[in-house]
Design a protein that fits this description.
The protein has about 240 residues and is mainly alpha-helical. The chain is about 60% helix and about 10% strand. It is globular.
């Protein structure tokens, strides 16, 4: 059974005008289906947290980007992108969610409960994004920014281009969080003369594949890994790619 939502409200530091938003943010689809067996699909979507998670993901990305830009004035776009991907990765979000003990507040179905759903990294990360979305919908961008800045204090302080993981490592970390095998990379073809060659590479993982290209195999693999991360993120949000 989930802990009282009032405790979670205190944990967020935001006083909700509409507490139902926070309740919905902590409601996994397994709970919604189990407790509303006769509800239409459209009604289920009004109960579970995936659409609020979609909002939270966007707000989180903006706050992280703003923070990184302000604290790293001389950083390149590439460095900022690497740091952002590091901070909003499933593993990073799950770590913050675990620190906040969000697992005990999630409403999940009995089946999901029995398989350890409260400790699953993806479920924790998604719930954190949904809570961010709920705060944004209730109190606006400023309220969400205050919450995100507070819970990511350590991460914002420690992040740097040097310490950030590259896209290949981020992809492997994301797959490991789902207990999936590491991705495989294959060179599809090369084009151009030896002095101006371009490599085309594919990344393959359980559930999908992506492609990338670059002036070296490493850069092509990096692009393929970045595309894979975007595809995995879109899939988790139910977005067709």
């Amino acid at each position: 059974m989930a802990a009282p939502v009032g405790q979670l409200e205190s944990l967020t530091g935001h006083r909700f005008s509409n507490i139902d938003l926070l309740v919905r943010a902590t409601t996994h689809r397994s709970w919604a289906y189990e407790n509303n067996p006769d509800a239409a699909e459209s009604e289920i979507h009004q109960i579970e947290n995936e659409s609020i998670e979609f909002i939270g993901d966007s707000v989180l990305g903006l706050v992280v980007a703003e923070n990184l830009y302000n604290k790293n004035k001389g950083a390149s776009e590439g460095d900022l992108t690497l740091m952002k991907h590091r901070l909003v990765s499933t593993a990073s979000l799950a770590s913050v969610a675990e620190r906040l003990e969000l697992g005990k507040f999630i409403r999940i179905g009995k089946g999901e409960e029995h398989t350890g759903g409260r400790k699953k990294q993806t479920l924790l990360a998604n719930t954190l994004e949904a809570i961010i979305g709920a705060i944004f919908l209730d109190g606006g961008y400023s309220a969400a920014k205050v919450f995100i800045t507070r819970i990511f204090t350590d991460e914002f302080r420690e992040i740097s281009p040097k310490s950030s993981l590259d896209f290949k490592t981020l992809l492997q970390e994301t797959l490991q969080a789902e207990k999936l095998a590491a991705p495989r990379y294959n060179v599809l073809r090369t084009e151009g003369p030896p002095h101006d060659r371009e490599f085309f590479v594919e990344a393959i993982w359980e559930g999908g594949r992506s492609t990338g290209n670059g002036r070296s195999i490493k850069s092509a693999e990096m692009m393929a890994a970045q595309s894979a991360l975007e595809a995995i993120k879109a899939t988790s949000l139910g977005v067709e790619t």
